[in-house]
Amino acid sequence: MERKVIFLDIDGTLTEPGSNDPPESALQAIKGAREQGHYVFLCTGRNYDMLSPLLKYDFDGIVASSGGYIECGKNVIYDCPMTETQRQTAMKVLEENGVFRTVECMDGSYTDEGFKDFLRDHAAEGSNSELLRWREQIEKSLNILPMKEYRGQPVYKIVIMSRTRNQLVQPQKVLASDFEFCIQPENKDGFINGEVVNKQFDKGKAVKKVCDYLGVSLDDSVAFGDSMNDREMLEAAGLSICMKNGSEELKKLADDICPSVKDDGIRKAFIKYHLIYA
Description:
alpha/beta; Hypothetical Protein, Haloacid Dehalogenase-like Hydrolase, Chain: A, domain 2; eight-stranded mixed beta sheet; six-stranded mixed beta sheet; 10 helices; about 35% helix
């Protein structure tokens, strides 16, 4: 059997969104795949601090910050935060256009309190109160701190939320040379959310870097994801699998669709593709 390199997104793929607790079936599948000689990597948009609770489980390496930081074993093979000029320009133009920002650094994440203030002020409108509860829970579980505690640490990625697409027109124009805007499909709450990611890296480029480092063909890579920020990863991998609970757009790009994270999808897909044996 050819040795495979398996890349697992976290939120919505390995765990419920915002959770740090994979189902036992997924943990057993990962253990079994590694015992069969395969490599298993986390490949996530989360920064290092957000994924650290999962490192108590055994993985062969991590891809963090959408490809901006990569470890193979204990070796750091790629580390690419924004330059200071990039950071200052991005933060300024987003703020000037009323876009709520969450900056992701190596040691933590920091978010504009203005988004929750807006939700509190409009709590009676639609599902804003539900969104506020969700946001507060996410911030608590992933240790996201208020922006006032940010001290200028290097930034790998900026997660954004805006009330309208028009608010993103000027930021996209100003930042076009250096950054990609990965915008999620509009959600039921009416907000636009996405990520501002350096063009120097993405999850797909990270898959290639890891395979090159390990001396494994891209044809022997397997990627699991659920949202459009996993697109490049799925496009790069030899076998791409989208979770049933995932984005409809991503499902169209994937080679296969496996059961949802709630329905032991990782384990069932590992068995289907002979990464482990039932």
